[in-house]
Write a structure and sequence with these properties.
about 80% helix; about 130 residues; single chain; two-stranded antiparallel ribbon
Length: about 130
């Protein structure tokens, strides 16, 4: 045993070096490769992160700009509304004509009957 100044005892073993120089060199090389891989991964991450941030900047710029096709969109919207209005008018005219035709057919019997009744009554009275 060896005495250290200060009074503490340290036991010295015969295997003081855990690894030989070759093993330490290999471990250092592996650590070096790991550090290089980590450095490359960090650079890739930074590049992707910068591109991502650039996209957000572009999106915010685009959102602030007025739409270039706004006038064309408004024109198409008005055109579609006009076509829809015309179509609804056409449908309502068609349904009105159909209803008028149906009503005329339904009431024509009554009208003819009333006219016949009036003529019959007038002929009994001697007017005809």
């Amino acid at each position: 045993m060896k005495r250290i100044p200060g009074g503490d005892r340290v036991e010295r073993s015969t295997q003081e070096n855990w690894y030989n120089n070759k093993e330490l060199f290999e471990q250092m090389q592996e650590l070096r490769k790991d550090f290089i891989d980590t450095k490359i991964a960090i650079k890739e991450f930074n590049t992707k992160f910068e591109r991502y941030n650039g996209l957000w900047e572009r999106i915010s710029k685009l959102e602030g700009q007025p739409c270039q096709q706004k006038d064309e969109i408004n024109h198409l919207h008005k055109l579609a509304k006009g076509i829809l209005t015309e179509w609804n008018d056409f449908k309502s005219q068609r349904s009105t004509k159909e209803k008028l035709g149906d009503d005329l057919i339904k009431w024509s019997g009554w009208i003819i009957g009333a006219i016949g009744g009036i003529i019959g009554t007038l002929s009994l009275l001697g007017v005809f």
